[in-house]
Amino acid sequence: MSLPPEKASELKQIIHNHLIKMNIHGKIRDVLAETVREDLDPGRSSLSEEDILRALQRRGIVDDVMKDLHFSKLIKEPCGCIDRKALLGHLTNVDPARRYLYLQVLGGKAFLEHLQEPEPLPGQVCSTFTLYLHFRNQRFRSKPVPCACEPDLQEGFLLEIHREGLGDGSKMADATTMLSICDPVHLVLIKRDTSSETTLVSSYFLDWRTVLSSPSGKTSIAVELHGVGSECKVAAGVLNMSLELYPPPSEILSPDIITTQRSLERQKTAEKERLFLVYAKQWWREFLEIRQENQSKLVKIFAQDENGVNRPVCSYVRVLRAGRLLESPRQAARFVSLLGLEKAPVVGGGGGGKQEQWCSLLAFLCRNKGDCEDHATLLCSLLLGFGLDAYVCVGTKPKGLAHTWVMTRGTDSTITFWESLTAHRYLHQAVDPDAPPLAPQPRPSYPYRTVGCVFNHKAFLANCQPSDAVELCAFDFHNQSQWKVMSEEAVGSVCSPGSTTSLPPLPPLCGPSLEPSAASNQLELEMRYLVVEHRKDLGLATVWDDHLSYVLSSALAAYELERCTGTSCGNEEFQDAVRRAVPDGHTFKGFPIHFLHRNARRAFATCLRSPFCDEIVCCRGDRVRLAVRVRVFAYPESACAVWVMFACKYRSVL
């Protein structure tokens, strides 16, 4: 049985509403727990999908679900045509030998910023909330819901608790083991407006271990979310949640034990941070005593995150491996450059000053944009994952603007700068200030003026050379007269993974969320429509040349390959194909342009601001044929590179 997309969506919504109404999740959990307790043989480690389905049918759950569903408005086939196994699809990966935390979001309230938000009409485009979760290398996100004072966030997330190394992962985590797991559930709430611009609403770390003291293994909580940046002390809203352990633990812990454990963890973290602060102050005094000029150098030891918490800058860098999602360091640089640039907003303008906000990695990835510091720390983490000796550089660009970028050191002492906002790479060759005036000197091509310090996940070094000008700096980190090194042991005490409970856990990268071919086709159709309408307003007809449009594909693929690898290829084939597609006596014009979004109207408006593109789109002449080609290249974390090329050919008339 096949249905049109709109009917399929309506059918899914009817089933979803009916399942919620009859509390199907609770019934399935009860049956599953009973089946595990009574029917599971000692020699078997898991239940199959058929075992679960038989248990539900035996207890009449499936029949109860089906008998009250009414599809008469949607389909004429009987209800029996629907695959009943689909109702249980989300349970097939549940292993009874593992412990799970079932986190349910039961709605939000007190989001007062949206108190006057009107009720969205059916089909109306409106601003939405999306909730993202990260727990022990697992990432989830909710469906987007309309922004409101009481947003209808109704989602359930099944989190596997024990995901340790080989051997431990097969064990059932008991109450004592779970108490020692201090990893929080990181919640990030993102608002997306009608123009697809994202805003970080809140970033919250949930300690889930209160459920260990619940007699039933289930508890309900209200989580108060706070704003970010300058609003980190202001409440943003409240999320109602329920936490449930499956299967319920046999041992129930006292609330006092959980409180004591948290207190001990906080004390241990506070003591480590206090000792590091004492060491950092002493190290800073020694650095200032080396030479007078050091007082003006940009040396940054601490930075504030989105929640206003001061953290050592080294804690923002980790070794991050992207698995199969990214194949090379240069592709990683390309991916990072596709994430948008946005400085933290300052209420009232702040006198033109820059609001500092270094984001945790999950908040940066979920928002899909951030400041140059966020880009640099992510790129450095990825390059470390690829085995390079990478560091984040803190310094200035021309006109004294503060900036961060990435540096790698080769085994042959080659120094390469990586601009995380553009994926450009620059080779550093130091200028010799003592060379004779007429001696040839390298001309720097990089846009950096000074460098005050460099750091990664294990090292922090401050520049104590006479000049902090980049072209004069030597990057020999073993020379203590040029770089003052912070103790690796001191850095590791507060920045290495697991050293303190205040460090946000490192999330894995998620794969692309869109299908490139479908996205390319859709955007190209929208572009064609906009061109036709624009020319119609000018009193011009539009005739498309589909073959010429297809020929443009190779050029767009070559442009993206060049951005990834720095190597140009395929230009000869493209030029030959264009010559064959354009008859003698005709003129060809083409205009490529690159975007980081898939909003057709915004892209088209940007294109028309270029006189070259406007000349093509508004082309007049004899036998005018137009072509447009769109290629969307998908990258991890919803990042995409969008290439659009407009072209026309016409007969030259003198």
Automatic annotation (TrEMBL):
Keyword Cytoplasm: yes
One Gene Ontology biological process: regulation of centriole replication
Keyword terms: Cytoplasm, Cytoskeleton
Superkingdom field: Eukaryota
Boundaries of every CEP76/DRC7 peptidase-like domain copy: 356-486
Coiled coil: none
A matching Pfam family: CEP76_N
Gene Ontology cellular component terms for the protein in this record: centriole
InterPro entries assigned: CEP76, CEP76-C2, CEP76_C, CEP76_N, CEPT76/DRC7_peptidase-like_dom, Papain-like_cys_pep_sf
Start and end residues of each Centrosomal protein of 76 kDa C-terminal domain: 516-651
Entry's localization field: Cytoplasm, Cytoskeleton, Microtubule organizing center, Centrosome, Centriole
Location of the CEP76 N-terminal domain: 10-69
Residue stretches making up the CEP76 C2 domain: 93-250
Family statement drawn from the similarity comment of this UniProt entry: Belongs to the CEP76 family.
Function comment: Centrosomal protein involved in regulation of centriole duplication. Required to limit centriole duplication to once per cell cycle by preventing centriole reduplication.
PANTHER family: CENTROSOMAL PROTEIN OF 76 KDA
Name of the protein described by the UniProt record: Centrosomal protein of 76 kDa
UniProt organism field: Salmo trutta
Gene for this chain: CEP76
